[in-house]
Specification:
The complex is a heterodimer. By secondary structure, chain A is of the alpha/beta class. Chain A contains six helices and 16 strands. The chains are: A alpha/beta, B alpha/beta.
Chain lengths: ~260, ~300
């Protein structure tokens, strides 16, 4: 899969709340490259004096017909705050696609559970949409602090079944994703997880206890995003490996969790 | 890409098609960048630091972003020289540019042994010695911080290594010129400078140092003025060619180093921000020469008063 540096053009900016923004961007000079769910882009931050490096942001959704890629960004620091302020028509320089993605179902009958917490739900929509195109129906289990932190539920519901937990009980079941009753009621062939590390660790131990293959998406701090600088390493059973190149998606059996 | 001027430079007998190299640790083995860059357009690629034995490097976190730069404490993670010779060299030997290996070690003997193995590889015309590593037998002070330490490594390697020997100097010293003269006398064919500047970053919320080992090497545009001053001084003190690096982010920066006395330059951290920057710098140097009616890049090396 060929990586490239593109001057994308922002086509729409939807500020979902004070903390989250949905950016859609197109490649004005040609088709977007082939991308896989779980891969990410290194976005250049153009108007922040206090940042230096690019920001790794997962691919939220890709529409090849519209030649459009979407990013769901949470405002965390100065870099993401700069992305939050993007305007339609502005340039979004991106290196993509980077890293290895999630394992996809081998057949439409396979039951995949896609578990997301907070902004970690972002790459799961791309995965759900890709599964839908294969004829598979994903099951999403999405967790958030509160109802107002649940993002883009309609988009997730459009391609699969959606189950929700909130910590305050304002939507779905109260508690954490690992406590949701769907885990007791249904059997799954595979689990894909992206979210805060404690959540991914408890999902990983759940999957291990049930013998279900499980992949998690890590977000170690990165510099190059290309496997050159060796800054973003995760200590795995194979030693220190670059999250940007060998990940960001790892089978939990490879991790020392 | 059309090149008008003669960009060819000579580093102690090593011919570079142009003066632009990529710095060790920022460009992998070149392979990581081949989707973005026609590698044959570069003067050379200095691959990842290689040691005699495999190294796991330091724990995560290894990086901290700073104003106009970054700190790293990767700690020379690599699979060792045997793995390099067996598995990586076959993948890179046909890349049509100068593939230069950066060599690190714990003792002069380690360095020499590692260099001797690389001496056997036909398609590696030069090595760059990283003398900023701690001298394990002598209290862990970096070899490159004393004239004796630096000379001891270079002497040992010089006996084992027959091709072009570049020595990469640490800026974390009182007089980089003295170190440069010492490695020249010990047999270096060229010097490259500067390696990263030692620094630190603190997370005020956690009230802890960010990097796993507390300190790390600072790189990026923030170090460029320091690097430029050191290149200027060393180029005037030594007879061997000088390769300049430290925060070079564009053709203008590169030209400043050439004017200061560097015969070639290395691009490091800038590769992270724009993976195509190295070839853009080659082109930018060419445009500068053409604009100012220089026929060859050699005409501008060291001409700044």
């Amino acid at each position: 899969m060929m990586k490239c540096v593109l001057d994308l053009q922002v086509t729409s900016v939807e500020r979902l709340s004070e903390r989250y923004v949905l950016l859609a961007a197109t490649n004005p000079v040609g088709p977007l490259p082939e991308m896989r769910p779980g891969q990410f882009a290194q976005l250049r931050i153009d108007d922040s004096k206090e940042t230096f490096l690019r920001r790794p942001i997962s691919l939220h959704s890709v529409d090849y017909e519209k030649n459009e890629v979407c990013f769901l960004v949470q405002k965390v620091g100065k870099g993401t705050a700069s992305l939050w302020q993007k305007q339609p028509g502005s340039t979004l320089n991106a290196i993509l696609p980077l890293g290895k993605g999630f394992t996809m179902p081998l057949s439409p009958e396979q039951r995949f559970l896609l578990v997301g917490g907070g902004v970690g739900i972002a790459p799961l929509l791309f995965m759900g949409e890709a599964m839908q195109r294969q004829g598979a129906r994903p099951v999403f289990l999405l967790g958030a602090r509160s109802k107002s932190d649940l993002l883009r539920l309609d988009a997730y519901r459009a391609c699969g079944d959606v189950y929700i937990t909130t910590e305050d009980g304002s939507e779905g079941e109260k508690g954490f994703v690992t406590q949701h009753s769907i885990l007791q009621k249904e059997k799954f062939d595979n689990i894909a997880v992206c979210g805060p590390k404690p959540m991914m660790m408890s999902m990983a131990s759940y999957a291990k206890s049930k013998g279900i293959p499980c992949e998690v998406s890590l977000e170690n701090m990165m510099a190059c995003g290309l496997g050159a600088c060796l800054c973003c390493v995760e200590d795995t059973l194979d030693g220190n490996v670059c999250v940007c190149k060998e990940g960001p998606v790892f089978g939990v059996e490879k991790l020392k969790w | 890409m059309e090149i008008m001027a003669d960009l060819c430079v000579d580093i102690a007998g090593l011919r570079l098609a142009n003066p632009v190299l990529t710095a060790s640790g920022t460009f992998g083995y070149g392979l990581e960048y081949q989707d973005f860059v026609d590698l044959s357009l570069l003067g050379g690629i200095i691959v990842k630091g290689t040691t005699l034995e495999p190294r796991e490097g330091n724990p995560y976190p290894r990086m901290a972003e700073t104003a106009q730069g970054m700190l790293n404490c990767v700690g020379l993670q690599n699979k060792g020289v045997d793995y390099f010779c067996r598995h990586i060299y076959p993948q890179i030997k046909d890349i049509k540019t100068n593939m230069i290996v950066n060599v690190s070690g714990n003792s002069p003997e380690d360095y020499a042994e590692c260099a001797a193995r690389i001496n056997e590889l036909d398609c590696i015309p030069a090595i760059e010695l990283n003398i900023s590593c701690p001298n394990v037998k002598h209290g862990g002070m970096a070899f490159g911080t004393t004239t004796e330490g630096a000379a001891s490594v270079v002497k040992a390697v010089r006996e084992a290594y027959k091709k072009t020997l570049i020595v990469k100097l640490s800026p974390n010293v009182t007089s980089i010129t003295d170190i440069a003269l010492a490695v020249q006398d010990a047999g270096a064919d060229a010097v490259s400078l500067i390696n990263t500047l030692m620094g630190m970053a603190i997370d005020i919320e956690k009230r802890k140092r960010i990097l796993s080992i507390g300190t790390g090497g600072l790189s990026g545009p923030c170090i460029k003025p320091v690097a430029l001053r050191m290149v200027y001084q060393v180029a005037r003190a030594v007879k061997v060619p000088v390769i300049g690096l430290g925060g070079i982010s564009n053709a203008k920066d590169a030209i400043e180093f050439l004017l200061a006395g560097a015969s070639a330059i290395e691009i490091g951290t800038a590769n992270f921000l724009d993976p195509t920057i190295s070839v853009k710098v080659v082109q930018g140097i060419d445009e500068y020469l053409e604009k100012h009616s220089f026929k060859s890049v050699k005409e501008i090396i060291g001409i700044c008063e």
